[in-house]
Design goal:
Elements: E1 5-10, H1 13-23, E2 36-41, E3 44-50, H2 51-58, E4 73-77, H3 81-93, E5 97-104, E6 110-115, E7 121-126
Length: 133
Amino acid sequence: MHLDGFGLFVRDMPAMIRFYRDVLGFEIKEAEDTENVYLIKDGTLFMLYGRNDFEKMTGQSFSYVKGLNGHSELALYVDTFDEVDAEFRRVTEMGAKAVMEPTTEPWGQRTCYIADPEGNLIEIGSFGRPFER
């Protein structure tokens, strides 16, 4: 098996589309009234999937955490420490919830955390050099 991508099961699709498209710059082309978003971001499949639609498809009910949740994180990389600080300021000014201010960690990474409208954690970090796969 190969990792194909990852997704988030969302309650408020219009708000989540606006956040990932307008605040984080994901190339989402679907209308805000869509049931599912499938896009490739930097070679990785990223999905937003309506919770009600998923439950209808599977015939099951699921429980979802409300507020900030620590189930997972989406990690975004920038090339410099200054970009970590600048992106944190930019996205929080645009409505992202600040979770952790930019900090340089003992292992040499500058990192910060924000949350999307449904409380999913997003890290913005850098090791002070261009991204390498």
